[in-house]
Design brief:
Radius of gyration: 19 Å
Structural class: alpha/beta
Distance between the termini: 19 Å
Shape: globular
Largest sheet: 7 strands, parallel
Bound molecules: coproporphyrinogen III
Oligomer: single chain
Strand order of the largest sheet: 1-4-5-6-7-8-9
Length: about 350
Amino acid sequence: MISDSPLVLAATRRPVPHTPVWFMRQAGRSLPEYRELREGTAMLEACRTPDLVTEITLQPVRRHKVDAAIFFSDIVVPLAAVGVDLDIVPGTGPVVPAPFRTRADLDRLPDLTADAIPDITESVQRLIAELGSTPLIGFAGAPFTLASYLVEGGPSKTHEQTKALMHGDPQLWNDLCERLAQISGAFLRVQVEAGASAIQLFDSWVGALPRADYTAYVQRHSTTALAAVADLGVPRIHFGVGTGELLDLMGAAGADVVGVDYRVSLTDAVARLGDSYAVQGNLDPALLGAPWEVLEARVRAIVDEGRKAPGHIFNLGHGVPPHADPDVLTRIVEVVHEHSAR
Ligand code: CP3
């Protein structure tokens, strides 16, 4: 039963047979079989093609024996589905040629309904049939991170335009984030209704904000997105990069599990979060290139720290880098399972 899978048990803070492990971006360019399959198909098109989505999602599960599959898609897929003109540029990320800056731009963000994404339902259903007892994690981008791509027009290190809008026109900012929370929540709901066993809300770039701004301008919108699946009974993971100062606020937004990047130890994260949340993380992806002995010792240390948490899902602190050696990931899964076996 999927409800007895190590991932769901850990997420809901129940005893596990071993620490579950999966990797953000486990599907993707680190796998030669992925590069081969993606040859000649644009990213956004691949995300809307059930044959490709199903196969790409399964590749890392077969190869690494991870404890969960993550649905192959992208945080901007639901934005494209409601009609936003955007592209995913290889080596860069999502690019929006006409950035969102004025009230009139809200007209370009209609609500997302399930009938706009029948292929997502089909892909999830096919995956559930193939995955058997391995849970599928659905996901969406959180309103702040989606807003950053829309307002900046592409990836940004400083999020200057986004912060200028947030502080300069809070009403427009809130209206924008309300629309994004609906879209994000609807995307999550479609995946769970089709059979996903858990979800992760990615607020990858929200670590750029101080606590006061997170509380004033962001938290309620992430709460709305997470609340869209609250009645469906699946665990909800809430993740960001550089969000050590926001962990408790991200938990309080409606998460069961809080993602921790490598800047804060799991021990410190638990001290900040208390007993009410499981944690996910937090191996620094850069260490994938370190000598195996060094890496293995770090993996074991993280498993040991995680045992003291109310629940622990092993993961990287951020996504698998494209140049990572996939065999190293497979070995990490083996070590986590062996070292954590109860
Ligand atoms: O295996 C998985 O984790 C599932 C697939 C997944 C992708 N994107 C596939 C993808 C997930 C969960 C995402 C989410 C996503 N997309 C996030 C949140 C996660 C994070 O990393 O913080 C963000 C910020 C994006 C936006 C985005 N899309 C970026 C930054 C990039 C990388 C650009 C690049 O080429 O370096 C993308 C494209 C993307 N999304 C790729 C993949 C496999 C690479 C595209 C390719 O293979 O050509």
